[in-house]
Amino acid sequence: MATSSDWAVEATGLVKIFGDNRAVDGVDLRVRTGSVYGVLGPNGAGKTTVIRMLATLLRPDAGHATVFGHDVQHEAQIVRQLIGVTGQYASVDETLSATENLVLFSRLNGLGRAESRAKANELLEEFGLTAAAKRPLKNFSGGMRRRLDLAASLISQPPLIFLDEPTTGLDPRTRSQMWDTIRRLVSTGSTVLLTTQYLDEADQLADRIAVIDTGRVVAEGTADELKSSVGKSSLQLRLVNPADRDDAVRAIRSVLGVDVTLSPEAARITAPMQDPDRITDLLVALREQNISLTELAVQKPTLDEVFLTLTGHGVETDAATQPDASETPKGRVNA
Amino acid sequence: MSTITSTIQSGASRELRNHVSVGQTVRNSFSMAYRGLLKVRRTPEQLIDVTLQPIIFTVMFTFIFGGAIAGNVASYLPLLIPGILVQTVITTSVVTGVQLREDMDKGVFDRFKSLPIARIAPLAGALLADTVRYTIATTITFVVGFILGYRPEGGIGFVVLAGLLVIVCAWALSWIFAFFGVIARSASSVQGISFLVLFPLTFLSNAFVPSDTMPDWLQWFVNINPVSHLVSAVRDLANLGTVGSDFWLALLGAAVVVMIFAPLTVRAYMRKA
């Protein structure tokens, strides 16, 4: 049994229901202190709702969660002293200037008047906002707003920081600046729980990743574990005649014993490849059935494929012909 | 760079409390009131209702009703100014609820909720900052009255006291509209509900006309209407320089409203969180 100092976040069976929509449907999460934990999922998967419950902003309908061993419901005020929250939509005051925002939040965090001013200047400097400090936020770019938002979350130097889609809508350069800031945060001992819909972001930043879809964790592990869960590498085939697709899929299933993923346009067949030796058998089998290929490639897995395989998104149009394409891997890697 | 490079104290080794002290609640509320004042300074157009409305209403009511009710304008002013003052300032307190609703829909309220501050502070602060609006409305009403020829017999000291009484009562009433603000879905519905409450309260009172010409059943309501007591208290103070029973009744009413609606509002606010 781990002690409370090992786990920054421990959540079991979190449920949140909005009307008849089970936005979060039994989510378990464990975030080790000092790590970056990524919650990855498409829009509407329930990521934000999970964060809001852990950050005491939303009451769970069922389940239990602790932050550094403190219950988010019964010790909410303690939890709030341990966390910083940066929302998906900048949670700063639009009508005030950057300085006024940081001074206000410093005051609310219990700092004195002079301390607050010093803290605000320090953070503005740190996040490169000094030049714009006095301007109203209405004229801030998306990147500046996010930086200010993050700065505001760091006033109390919280040991746990929630970042809800910290780079959504940012241009690539600003995004990589944001990544650098997050990495620096972690190097000082902060624990970061971030949500993202970008696979490369989770891959780049997170020590562990939970893939979440329709309110459930469908897979959990390090980026490498997730990648290897869909096969070491994948085999990609493109057929000359798309009408042969079903035969090809059957052949792959009988020879390699795996289920395939079809690309959204269904022209490409992707199969997890556990044993490269058996590719020869497959090619022979395809030749015997007169199925011609235009392309044959072996690809190392990307998180994109993990995502596609786990959530089944993108293959929905073929759901009728491929009922279990997304089901099998889901069962296998479910943590 | 010191902010980020200094090592962060671990969560387990911090000294933490799960409750908020009274002192901290007050400090948090004043910080939130400071935010409210900054907002007013940034968007001065929000003050249009508390500057123009008292001028227009006072002038309009004076010349429409003055001759009919009191024979002439000069003798109507001592009756009207306290009435219009109460009506204007209470109407202004509706805006508190409407603006609170708009404010709460913004992302910044998520941050307020995630901070270890008193839960009541964002509400109390907003309401506290709005006393500035009531003060402006009160001052302008008295000044317009003075320009039209109103000379309160009670003297400046009692006029100021009357103004303070109205501001305190408006602040108390603003908790009602803040409650609507928290439970309503949109700012416009807050406005709708609030005016539905407000119109009978301000017009079915002695604010504009003496109640003795009304039918008995209406007089009964007018006489128990807290707005009537507030108007009478202001008239006593400004016109006679006396503190009567209406003064204490108005303050008692204000206290009761706050005791009922402040906890209701905070609870609704937290449930919405």
UniProtKB/TrEMBL annotation, chain A:
Gene Ontology molecular functions: ATP binding; ATP hydrolysis activity
Gene Ontology cellular component annotations, sorted alphabetically: plasma membrane
Domain ABC transporter: 9-239
PANTHER family: ABC TRANSPORTER ATP-BINDING PROTEIN, DOXORUBICIN RESISTANCE ATP-BINDING PROTEIN DRRA
Protein name: ABC transporter
Topology term for the membrane: Peripheral membrane protein
Subcellular location: Cell membrane
TrEMBL record, chain B:
ABC transmembrane type-2 domain: residues covered: 45-272
Main location: membrane
MF term (GO), any: ABC-type transporter activity
PROSITE patterns per the UniProt record, alphabetical: ABC_TM2
Pfam families cross-referenced by the UniProt entry: ABC2_membrane
Extent of the signal sequence: none
Membrane topology: Multi-pass membrane protein
Cellular component per GO, a single term: ATP-binding cassette (ABC) transporter complex
Transmembrane segments: 47-70, 76-100, 120-150, 156-180, 192-209, 247-270
Domain of life according to the entry: Bacteria
Swiss-Prot/TrEMBL GO biological process terms: response to antibiotic
Alphabetized UniProt keyword annotations: Antibiotic resistance, Cell membrane, Membrane, Transmembrane, Transmembrane helix, Transport
PANTHER family according to UniProt: NODULATION PROTEIN J
Assigned protein family: Belongs to the ABC-2 integral membrane protein family.
Name by which UniProt lists this protein: Transport permease protein
Lineage: Bacteria, Bacillati, Actinomycetota, Actinomycetes, Micrococcales
